[in-house]
Structure formats: C-alpha cells, structure tokens
Specification:
The chain has 7 helices and 15 strands. By secondary structure, the chain is an alpha+beta fold. The chain has one domain: 3-layer Sandwich (Rieske Iron-sulfur Protein), CATH 2.102.10.10. The structure holds FE2/S2 (inorganic) cluster.
C-alpha cells in the first residue's frame, strides 16, 4: 500500500533542515498502522524467547508477534520450527486457547485437521495431486543463538545471524525467572521509545541494550538480562512481553517485585508531547517505512 500522507510529510521534513514536527496521526491513524504492518512488522527479525521454553522434543508454544500468531515447535533431534498459526483448511488458528504444551500433533479445534510439529498436514489425507508444499503450515526462518530463539521472515537467515551475534554468551546456560505481559493503550513507537529509555525499570545498575529489529530488545548485565517484546495490536494498543532471564539457577539478584506497578504506571504517565520524536528517531522510522529513499 502507498505511504499515508502523514508519513510522506515526515519524509519531506527530513529532507529539509527545519525542526521535525510529526503529525499526531502517526500515533493514531489505522492507515499508518496498516502501512507499518506491511512495511515493518512483517519484515522484522524478532527475539522471541529463551530456548528453555522448548527444552524437549515435542514441546510447542504459541507466540503473538504482530501481525501474526506463531507456533514455535521442537521436533526430533532438537530441530526448531516457526509456523504460522493459521489452519490451511479455513484460516482459523490451529492453537487458540492453550499457550504451550507437549504433543505429537497439533489438532485444529474447528474441524479436526491435524498437523505434525514440523507443520505437515497429516490428517485428513488429501489428494496426492495437490502440491505437498500447500499441505503444510507456512513457516518462517528460526534459529537459536546464545540461548535466544530468533524468528524472521523466510529467507532472512543472514539478517537473523547479524542480530543474533550481539547476544551475550552466558545466556546459553541461563534460566527464565519470570514471564509477564502488559497491555497498554499506547502506539508501539511510544512504547518502544519508553522501554528503550527505561532499563532501570528492569535491572539495577548499568545494562547493555541490544536491539533485534524494531520490536524486540534485550537489556543485559553479566548475570541478568531482560528480553522485551513489543506486540503492536492496533494503532493505539500495544502489548509488552517481559522475559526475565538469569544466569545459572537464577538465585542471585532476585527481580524487583514492583516491576509491574512501575512499568504500567510509568507507561501511562510517559511524555505525551512527542518531543522525543526528533530528527534521529524520525530518520530511523523513515528508513523502516521507506528503505532506500
Ligand atoms: S479451520 Fe482448521 S480444521 Fe477447519
């Protein structure tokens, strides 16, 4: 789809020398959100979770990752798969209510079609004249680096490798201390900026920030880390998934109990003036919406 006018106008401002004055529609217009879904979310590399979530063959979990729902599965020999959670029969989610589990097959609750954990349709048996590639759930690129599961669009292996090289090596043998989710009534760009600027909400003391695409980042210290996933739902609704990771058994440095209160309270009182959206951030956003222009 074409770029909405508010985005085009931002590009024009960037070509000039003046102050950047973003149109508030960038935070509220469903057309802008639709363009972002097509141009940013669908093309992004994502850090999804820690590998311990798929500790054994046969494990799976469901994961919201705008603009789609994914199924992460592990088959024989520790092979991981990232599958689109949309049944090829009639387009309903294959896994709807449960978040994770262990199974030999995933059974779509609507009409009972069954899939192997690598995405192949195993029931019903359809005509052998149908291209087998059409008889499976679409898949995405997936890999694990330093304990973190990364997913990207098909063919994004090189981009994933580039991102993944930044993960601290100690996270390979780490454990997950806690997973939490928050709903916000903010646009994803505001949420991202707020999270990126607020490592103190998650970790005491200095932390390195590693970004993995526009929708995931890790704050890391020598023995603790927090993986943050930003899940845009609508123009003015964004979820945040927080995965707290600790070295070894996670017994040192217990997590601050006030995290959830602090995060939510500060998200809702964060600066609404958009003054943070200066030239550097505008340039970053423009490079995602109109790469090469
Ligand atoms: S939509 Fe899945 S079996 Fe019909």
């Amino acid at each position: 789809m074409d770029l909405p006018l508010s985005v085009v106008e931002l590009g024009a401002q960037l070509r000039g020398e003046g102050k950047i004055s973003p149109d508030p529609a960038l935070w509220s217009d469903p057309q802008v959100f639709a363009a972002e879904r097509e141009r940013i979310f669908q093309r992004s590399v994502l850090a999804i979770d820690h590998q311990t979530r798929l500790a054994e063959d046969g494990r799976w979990f469901r994961c919201d990752a705008a603009p789609r729902s994914l199924l992460l599965t592990r088959t024989t020999g520790g092979r991981l798969h990232a599958l689109r959670n949309v049944c090829i029969h009639a387009g309903y989610p294959v896994c709807d209510s449960e978040e994770e589990g262990e199974a030999e097959r995933l059974v779509c609750p609507y009409h009972g079609w069954e899939y192997a954990l690598d995405g192949r349709l195993v029931e019903p048996e359809l005509s052998s004249r149908i291209d087998p590639a059409r008889l499976r759930l679409p898949s995405y690129s997936v890999c694990v680096r330093s304990g973190v599961i990364f997913v990207g669009p098909s063919g994004a292996d090189e981009a994933i490798e580039q991102c993944a090289s930044a993960v601290p090596a100690w996270m390979t043998a780490a454990t997950v201390a806690r997973r939490t989710r928050y709903n916000t009534d903010r646009n994803w760009k505001s949420v991202r900026y707020f999270l990126q600027s607020s490592p103190q909400l998650f970790l005491d003391g200095p932390a390195d920030c590693h970004e993995f695409g526009p929708l995931s980042l890790v704050f890391a210290q020598p023995q603790r880390a927090v993986l943050l996933r930003i899940v845009p739902k609508f123009a003015e609704q964004t979820d945040v998934h927080v995965i707290e990771i600790a070295d070894g058994d996670g017994s040192h440095n217990p997590q601050p109990s006030s995290l959830s209160d602090g995060l939510i309270a500060q998200l809702h009182t964060a600066d609404n003036s958009l003054s943070w959206f200066g030239r550097d951030i505008a340039r970053w956003y423009w490079s995602l919406m109109a790469p090469g222009e």
